[in-house]
User: What shape does this take?
Amino acid sequence: MWLQMRLYLLVGLLLAIVYGVIVGIASAAGSQNFIAFAIVAVGFVFLQYLISPAIVGWTMKVKYVTEKEYPDLHRMVAELANAAGIRKPKVGVSRIAIPNAFAFGRNTRDARICVTEPLLKTLNREELRAVLGHEISHIKHRDMMIMTLLSVVPLIIYLMAINFLFAGRRESSPLPLIGIGLLVLYFIVNLMVLYGSRVREYYADLESVKLGNQPNYLASALYRLVLGSARAPKEAVKAVEGAKAFFLNDPSRALSEVRELKQIDSDLSGTIDQGELMALRSKKVSLSTGEKIMEIMSTHPNMLKRIKHLSSLS
Assistant: This one.
């Protein structure tokens, strides 16, 4: 409930910021400028909303598969979708060389859930089901639409900032100073959107557990994904850099996360069992300053903190 409340508060705060910017710009430069920026930004995001499923499918090399081709995968997706009370999404398999899963689409009726070929070779059935439960939860709570809407706010502010930076040509004009202030606000709002993205990952983890998946299976799956991403070719990781927000974890942070997670894997088995997860429950997780900064700038939570959160659900 607290995770859900954070998202609601974040959306409300961002809307309040937009309102404040509207009032400020209207008094400083006239409301017509803001309307123009808003139309451009909303139009751009709406176009992105329309074509993004096709772009994601093409970028991720997705092939939509039938029940005959992948009966177990379809069965698990159908069971989880039924438990979540949503329509069964389309099921696809991605040919990228990194073990991961992702969900995308315009809405719950247009949703698609995909797994990569390396993921199917990496996880056991329980771990795969926990991962699919995480992605089903993103679809159920319309996270794709929420993040699209949130992305409108920094885009509007950025367009206004650039306009004001180059609008005031007279020395006494205050418009360039307004532009600098808006750039600072743009940076802050971007951090808020990233925070919202991290919160939704915690929330989807929680919902996967509510769908009947054991926390240690999801924790073990996340650990395996980190190990797989760390071993993947650098070219493969760079190729999906622009789409990592869709993934279950951030592949570009895998090498540093492996070092952190090895302290949980006490028997060095490459998995996290129930005992190891419960042992983490009583431990205090502390991050270095560098790790904290990396998390603030990321779409995903620090993996050690995330698995610590799963230990509290056991």
Notes: Residues 1-51+146-314 form one domain. DSSP finds 13 helices and four strands in the chain.
